[in-house]
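Notes taken during the Thursday session

The instructor put the following on the board and asked us to keep it in front of us for the whole hour. The protein is DUF3105 domain-containing protein. We were told not to look anything up and to reason only from what is written here. First, the residues (226 in total):
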Amino acid sequence: MGSGKNSSTAARKARIEEMRRAERARESRNRILVIAASVVVVAGLAVGGVVLVNAQSDKKDSATASDDGKGSGDTGHFTAGADGVKTWSGKLSRTHVTSKVTYPMHPPVGGDHNPVWLNCNGNVYTEPVQDENAVHALEHGAVWVTYTGKAQKADVDALAAKVKSTPYSLMSPYENQDAPLILSAWGHQVAVKSAKDPEVDKFFATYVQGRQTPEPGASCTGGVMK
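Then, after some discussion, the predicted structure tokens were revealed:
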């Protein structure tokens, strides 16, 4: 009788212990599930935050890239110095855009521009170039020589030779300008009478990688060729 009771008690204790082990196992699994769920939630929030930030960034970039060319972001006007060099007196925006830009001056001396610069390592272009790429070259400290069909061939040839021998300079035809020969730098511009005009050498000496350069030392190679 006593032996049977002891056996029953032992069996009950064994079942209770088994139930406790099962309960501990369930609690352990539940903790793991809770932790896993928390990790998933946190990860989801992090990813969601990144997606939201990227989406907002993309939206901003898209808005910037979709600039319809109504303006270059510039404010101000030219003021002329005693030497004939015109200096832009207002703000010249430097935002990168991938669309056409309408500039308030021709050729432009600054403003919003293409993310890729026009090669300006003494490059002479015989066809018109994109304003937006050329302006980026000016931002790097280049001097841009432009000429119309009214310019004398001897002057064009002489200026081309000077450009070819001068890093951080470029040259291209440009019909939409007020004088046959114009030299431009970031924020500065001058019309010259000929290649022998003393202002040519002075302008090059002052503005090739001059103090006006927003990004001194930036590359004039590795961009676009036209």
